[in-house]
């Protein structure tokens, strides 16, 4: 068999979308949230001498997630600056120097503090610490005891059980048996084998329930209060105004830096008779024009998408139960004649400020389940709300099983499987019925 290879030259015309660098940057800018956009523009202003940023931000542009910043709040610009806490390590060091004399034992305390993690737990074994310092086990235990007497309560614990015991020990309002139950029957308590505990200590189940409820008020991570508070505030991209039956969506211009062209500098550079300078200054001018146009397009896209979302979810803004109708990215994309990925980028990390809270735009999207009897779709968020309400209203002495919830939802013309109920219940953070049972008197 003979194989032959023929080579020839042909011209072929095809259409192809070229992802230029500027197009890629435009897509990226749409995806940026407010903070990322600010950082990007600041970087560009450092690279381009023709770009000047005129910040137009007031304390009213900052809204705490899920809450509203009211216009009658005191006009204190320091409110937008996060509280600057010292670290847990620094806090412990200050207490050690303040409370303990300069002795060998304090040296061991300072050594152990180096091994306290951000949650407040000791991460080194005392035997290992003794080997590293040359101290004996009793000295290391004494040093740890001194750390565990510091604030916050629970710091220096080696596990969750010890952390809770340290907190109970300092609390005069703790239930009488709380400390000994945690010390001797912690696993049984966590696994809700309360009958065994009640029998051992000769108390009622309601007493164990009281101890369990009290433990829920304690913190498993005493050092977490020292974590950074940065990022707790957001700048809403859109603002909703309700006037009668009208829903008016406005772009929050104050949240976006205003670009200004350095005209005087540009004219001075134009006067320089140097080809390289002329090419450079023209390039930077084009970059400014592109950036200004892209930022405007970003704002316009977010506004269009936001208005369409509000239009489709009208009931959410007028009904106190905040119901959502089923809605997906494809529906919005088809209406606005854009790609689904554009809608996705326009809603991720973008927020709508209302009179009753601040909401991420993507939170308004909800899949639906078809109702065979009515032929209509019910959003998953509405089903979850109904499930949550059933659990909230249940008899805590006889909590509803997943199958019983299925039956009750069916009475409300919502037909879903027990497996789906379990999935939604877990997504809502609702324990199983055996873990929800209470033993109140």
TrEMBL record:
PROSITE patterns given in the database record: SIGMA54_1, SIGMA54_2, SIGMA54_3
GO molecular function (one): DNA binding
Pfam family, one: Sigma54_CBD
Record GO cellular component, one term: DNA-directed RNA polymerase complex
Annotated Gene3D superfamilies: Homeodomain-like, RNA polymerase sigma-54 factor, core-binding domain
Assigned protein family: Belongs to the sigma-54 factor family.
Descriptive protein name: RNA polymerase sigma-54 factor
């Amino acid at each position: 068999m003979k194989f032959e290879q023929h080579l020839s030259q042909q011209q072929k015309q095809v259409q192809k979308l070229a992802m230029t660098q500027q197009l890629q940057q435009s897509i990226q800018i749409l995806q940026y949230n407010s903070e990322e956009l600010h950082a990007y523009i600041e970087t560009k202003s450092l690279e381009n001498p023709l770009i000047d940023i005129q910040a137009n931000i007031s304390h009213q542009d900052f809204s705490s997630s899920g809450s509203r910043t009211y216009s009658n709040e005191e006009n204190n610009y320091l409110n937008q600056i996060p509280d600057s806490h010292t670290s847990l390590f620094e806090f412990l060091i200050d207490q050690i120097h303040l409370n303990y004399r300069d002795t060998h034992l304090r040296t061991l305390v300072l050594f152990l503090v180096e091994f306290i993690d951000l949650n407040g737990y000791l991460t080194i074994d005392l035997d290992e610490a003794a080997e590293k310092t040359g101290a004996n086990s009793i000295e290391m235990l004494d040093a740890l005891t001194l750390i565990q007497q510091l604030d916050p309560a629970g710091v220096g614990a080696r596990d969750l059980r010890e952390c809770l015991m340290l907190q109970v020990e300092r609390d005069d309002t703790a239930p009488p048996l709380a400390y000994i139950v945690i010390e001797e029957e912690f696993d049984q308590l966590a696994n809700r084998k309360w009958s065994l505990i009640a029998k051992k200590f000769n108390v009622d189940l309601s007493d164990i329930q009281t101890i369990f409820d009290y433990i829920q008020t304690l913190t498993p991570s005493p050092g977490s209060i020292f974590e950074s508070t940065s990022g707790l505030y957001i700048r809403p991209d859109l603002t909703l105004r309700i006037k009668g039956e009208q829903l008016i969506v406005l772009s929050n211009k104050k949240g976006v830096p205003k670009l200004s062209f350095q005209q005087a500098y540009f004219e001075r550079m134009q006067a320089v008779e140097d080809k390289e300078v002329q090419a450079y200054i023209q390039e930077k001018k084009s970059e400014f024009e592109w950036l200004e146009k892209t930022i405007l397009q970003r704002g316009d896209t977010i506004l269009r998408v936001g208005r369409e979302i509000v239009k489709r979810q009208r009931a959410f803004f007028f009904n106190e139960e905040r119901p959502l109708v089923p809605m997906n990215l494809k529906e919005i994309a088809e209406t606005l004649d854009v790609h689904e990925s554009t809608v996705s980028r326009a809603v991720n990390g973008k927020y709508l400020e209302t009179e009753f809270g601040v909401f991420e735009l993507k939170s308004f999207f909800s899949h639906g389940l078809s109702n065979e009897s009515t032929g209509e779709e019910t959003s998953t968020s509405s089903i979850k709300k109904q499930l949550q309400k059933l659990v909230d209203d249940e008899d805590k002495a006889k909590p509803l099983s997943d199958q019983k919830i299925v039956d009750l939802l069916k009475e409300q013309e919502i037909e879903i499987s027990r497996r789906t109920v379990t999935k939604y219940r877990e997504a809502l953070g609702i324990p199983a019925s055996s873990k929800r049972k209470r033993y109140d008197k």
